[in-house]
Amino acid sequence: MANYQEILAARLSEKRYLHSLGVAGTAARLASKNKVDPEQARLAGLLHDYARDLPPGELLTLAAGAGLITCELERRLPILLHGPVGALLIKQDLGIKDRAVLQAVARHTVGAVAMTALDKIIYLADVIEPERRFPGVEELRRLAAADLNAALLKAFETSILYLVGKGQPLHPVTIEARNYLLLSGQEETSA
Q: Between 20 and 30 A from 23 (CA), which of 101, 104, 131, 180?
């Protein structure tokens, strides 16, 4: 793990490196509470932004070359590709083969339908790590400590409302993931 920290420190801005350390610690704590391997969560959290500081053109080129682009929005906003490209690069550059870790890194940017517990933990840890400051973050932290699904639903909704408020487009997968989670919860409560 220390070796990965050195690699990240050289690769990312100081602010993003510190964010990655915060996500790793938050992910490990959430994992321990939710019966997920905390070291697996710590690794995924640490490496989740591996590709975040790449220039947009490089993200687009790498994603296109690997067939990772799923919609026109990603072509127009290549920053949305930093999760999938990050998963690709940590496999190629660092030799990480843990599919659960790779998937959680790939899915942390916009979410996904049917996210695993580790996927949810990395998505949430990215949103609530200690350096994050925005209205509603404390509520998300409380929800995450009590119920991953409730916290994830609130995190999706917070992101969607923020983007709508800024007049920015929504990634279709985030909407699908929110709807899937919402409908899954209704099935559970009505069964």
A: 180
